[in-house]
Amino acid sequence: MKIAMTVNGKSVSRDVPDNTLLVEYIRDHLRLTGTHVGCDTSQCGACVVHVDGRAMKSCTMLAASASGAQVTTVEGLATSKDELHPMQVAFKENHGLQCGFCTPGMIMTATDMVARYQGQGKELTEEAIRHELEGNICRCTGYHNIVKSIVDGASKMTTA
Amino acid sequence: MSEGIGARVLRKEDKRFITGKGRYTDDIIEANQAYAAFVRSPHAHARIVSVDASAALAMEGVETVLMGPELVADGIGNIICGWGVTSKDGSPMNMGAWSALATEKVRYVGDAVAIVVADSKALAKSAAEAVVVEYEELPVVVGSVEALAEGAPQLHENAPGNLIFDWEIGDLAPTDAALASAAHVTEMDITNNRLAPNPMEPRSAIATFNEAEDHYTLYTTSQNPHVARLVLSAFYNVAPEHKLRVIAPDVGGGFGSKIYIYPEEIACLWAAMKCGRSVKWTSDRTEAFLTDAHGRDHVSTAKIGFDKDGKIVGLKVNTKANLGAYMSLFSSAVPTYLYATLLSGQYDIANIYCDVQAVYTNTVPVDAYRGAGRPEACYLIERLMETAAREMGVDPAALRAKNFVKSFPHQTPVIMAYDSGDFDANLKQAQEAADVAGFAARKAEAASRGKLRGLGYSNYIEACGIAPSAAVGSLGAGVGLWESAEVRVNPVGTIEILTGSHSHGQGHETTFAQIVAERFDLPTENIQIVHGDTDKVQFGMGTYGSRSGAVGMSAIVKAMDKVEAKVKKIAAHVLEAGEDDIVIEGGAVKVAGTDKQMLWHEVGLAAYTAHNIPEGMEPGLKESAFYDPTNFTFPAGCYICEVEVDPETGVTEVVQFVASDDFGTIINPMIVEGQVHGGIAQGIGQAMLENVVYDEMGQQLSASYMDYTMPRADDLPNYSVHHASTVCPGNPLGMKGCGEAGAIGSPPAVINAITDAIGNNNLAMPATPAAVWAALQDVQSKIAAE
Taking CB atoms and an 8 Å limit, are A140 and B15 in contact across chains? Predict the structure, then answer.
């Protein structure tokens, strides 16, 4: 079936099998390989993208369900080649990544988390960050620097 | 700011990862690529009666279904263990045959029976399900103790009693005598639980065969692509070495599990040749649990004896090591030379004896996982020390300090010669950072909230920088364990470093550039690290055992020595000065004490134009080196963990974790701290959360993230990481290694803290709430009975 949506601000359309997952649509058909697959059970969060402004696990959603949606992947987060998103900067400055495989999902979850908390006027404490990261697994960092990155990224997003 | 040794330089590799531009194996697509799926055994032990692939082959878009007998007929060799271990009686180890695709029997759930190649991933999986395999089920054994028992099911004909080897180290009679004379003996049964490594990137491979060139290319998730090429060609006979290129691009974590050459890579290469298409396979997560080599799985009994003053007189250990259904690449070395050689811990122990029975079972093969043998040794000795102190009613830190090795070099009775360290300094630093003096007050305050607070130590030592080639050769290693490097100064003065080390999260592109920046006083942006491709880098032994610093960087230093010598010769010639007067600084090559200089890039240009270089000198500015280490290195440290247990539920929280490490010279503290954080997280995971569980039929009950408890952000604390270092005398930069220490040192600290809190030393990993609660009930029922 033909599935059209907007990905990173660009209209796209592909003829794909009905059972194509959103992550397969993004990785295999659009060739945007920054979104990763780390498990089969919606646990690891390496595949998180934004669908109509909300963080979603793209491995758990049919591409057809995102038909007509606005999708943002990690490739679409930076405003330009030279200007990274504040959360991307924060991950680099705080050594919030090692092998980099979980990182796109972490960053997409983090930006969604910060936007939600700031939108609701709630304080994003370290404890809240750790709780919010329930759906994202990292095997390298022990989370210490990821939490630090998100604290810093949140502050950078406020001032940005 | 300096970008040299000791600077917290932000990582050069980060930009591609944070923008989604990393290039992992599964991201790569070859022209006319087909997809592979494997038909895997659902039984832990069975005879293959028949395989019927006709329904799969009839599906449109299925290229081929290939099986074991054809693989063997094509001359593809069995998978081997590359480290020979000799039994007590002098006999060699009993290695059973492991074909990449099973021929007659399957020996664990997940054992590959056939490879199915099709036009799409989904089709390959559907077709694999359509392959009908008839099995005759056989009795199953999953535990090492059960597998050694009389009448246990037999896995391999050439390993009677499932015994792979029965190995020993140290002297039995003096150890027995010392224990008999001891004033106090502590005896414990200690199990080191089986773990699944779980790098977040699942294994993946793309094999391409170019018929016109008779040449293969393999992209794979490897920690050591050159070793993969060597083994695939020399032992598995897949392709001659010069006709096989192995590329390990960005690799998403390894932790040991990506050292080995697995059946899937062999089968994909072979299938690519058979069907004339590129063949890609990517593991899913459950497949990873079922096929990635597991770690640990030791069952031990141990006795440690003390004299009346609390000095250790002897240590005796028996360990049964479960190696799974087949011997993986380094599996034999892990429970022997990487384990028992570290049983002396940080202590001066005159008498040690250990024997190890390695055992086949109907489980996934077991091999090195972050720490590989040293975590098992550390857990054993550190639980013994803590328990002994409690039994003798002495301070556990004081008992340790009394027995510390205090002068170096120190020869242990189990091969290792510790070269440096200051264990007192690490202990003191950790105690201060953890405010041990204030613990009693914190415990009382916790009690007022109904919580049990406990504190546990772990004073670890481990061995890295594996290893002097002649030494490991004499112990049975099938390879040398040096490293190679090439330093290429371009005509414009920029530098490429080609290294046989492989970065899969460790940040080599940054730290390796830092040592070059330091040496030639250049910015790191002018330095590029090239690794992971056998066509670019001549050879390398790869990254594991925290060897990239101590061994990999040492090779770069050796190559830089040669480059520096040539640079000085050229500059001395052009500037008409003596070589000894030439200094390299500030991006220039100068005659000391004068204003005569060449800019760095001018020397590069001079070397390549060769218009004016010393007579007889070869043009160009490129040097290579192989570095063979002179000894292991010995990172050590002190970890202190504090926990609070809810006695009603057994729920345990790590409320403080302090690390004081001695890693020798540190190139980039930011990256080193990151390594320690990650290691501690894996250690806390082992101690409290993670466990591979098999039922009696050999089914893995923990084969998904719904069932295997991966540490998550809210399971873990922030870590307080400190360094008290001594320089390693064995290599030019004085480095010891930091990649595994966290995972080695932390499990006993956690368990010692929990057992302190609950007042019961009898607690096994993982200390889940149920396990902690049960151990607490034991204590309370004993108290009630008294």
Answer: no
Q: Choose among B201, B679, B713: nearest Cβ to A99.
A: B201
Q: What is the pLDDT of residues B388-407, one digit of tens each?
A: 999 999 999 999 999 999 99
Q: Do domains B31-138+207-291 and B139-193+296-395 have the same CATH topology?
A: no
When the pLDDT of each residue in chain B is averaged and rounded to a whole number, the result is 97
| Chain centre distance of CA B710 | 18
What b-and-e string marks burial along B562-580, b requiring 16 or more CB atoms within 10 Å of the CB?
Answer: ebbebbbbbbbbbbebeee
Q: For chain A, where do the domains classified as CATH 3.10.20.30 start and end?
A: 2-76
Give how far A68 is from chain B: nearest CA, Å.
23
The third-level CATH classification (topology) of the domain covering A86-159 is DNA polymerase; domain 1 (1.10.150)
Please state whether beta strands B720-723 and B652-662 pair in parallel, antiparallel, or not at all (unpaired). parallel
**Closest partner CB to A41 (pick from B255, B671, B706):** B706
Strand order of the β-sheet with A70-72 is A10-15, A2-7, A70-72, A48-51, A54-57
A95–B11: do the CB atoms touch at under 8 Å? yes
Mark B42-74 as b/e (b = at least 16 C-beta within 10 Å).
Answer: ebbbbebeebebeebeeeeebbbbbbbeebbee
CATH code for the structural domain at A2-76:
3.10.20.30
Name chain B contacts of A129, Cβ cutoff 8 Å: 713
Report the alpha-carbon angle A79-A84-A86, nearest 5. Answer: 105
With cut-offs at 50, 70 and 90, classify the pLDDT of residue A82: confident
The verdict on ipTM greater than 0.90 is yes
The per-residue pLDDT for range B123-153, each reduced to its tens digit, is 999 999 999 999 999 999 999 999 999 999 9
Q: Are strands B215-220 and B204-210 parallel, antiparallel or unpaired?
A: antiparallel
pLDDT at residue A84 tops 80: yes
Task: Supply the CATH classification number for the domain B430-458+634-786.
Answer: 3.30.365.10
| Inter-chain residue contact A100 with B13, CB threshold 8 Å | yes
Q: Is A130 on the interface with B (CB under 8 A)?
A: yes
Nearest CB among A74, A99, A145 relative to B677 is that of A145
Give the CATH class of B482-627.
Answer: alpha beta
Choose among B198, B680, B742: nearest Cβ to A139: B198
Beta-carbon pairs below 8 A across chains A and B = 179
How many CB atoms sit inside 10 A of residue B664's CB?
29
Which of A20, A49, A59, A98 has the most B C-beta neighbours within 10 Å, making it the best mutation to test the interface with B? A98
SS3 B605: helix
What are the tens digits of pLDDT across the range B15-72? 999 999 999 999 999 999 999 999 999 999 999 999 999 999 999 999 999 999 999 9
The CATH number, out of the four listed (2.60.120.200, 3.40.50.12160, 3.30.365.10, 3.40.50.10490), of the domain defined by the range B139-193+296-395: 3.30.365.10
From the list A35, A140, A146, the residue facing B253 with the nearest CB is: A140
Going by pLDDT thresholds of 50, 70 and 90, the confidence category of residue B768 is very high
Cβ contact A38–B202 (<8 Å): yes
Q: What is the pLDDT of residues B255-280, one digit of tens each?
A: 999 999 999 999 999 999 999 999 99
Q: Which CATH superfamily is domain B31-138+207-291 in?
A: Aldehyde oxidase/xanthine dehydrogenase, a/b hammerhead (3.90.1170.50)
- Sorted by sequence, the CB contacts under 8 Å of residue B406 that are 6+ apart come out as B348, B423, B424
Residues in chain A with CB shorter than 8 Å from the CB of B678 are 98, 139-142
Are A138 and B200 in contact (CB < 8 Å)? yes
CA-based nearest residue to B13, from B546, B593, B531: B531
Residue extents of the structural domains in chain B? 31-138+207-291, 139-193+296-395, 430-458+634-786, 482-627
Question: Taking 60 as the threshold, does the pLDDT of residue B458 lie above it?
Answer: yes
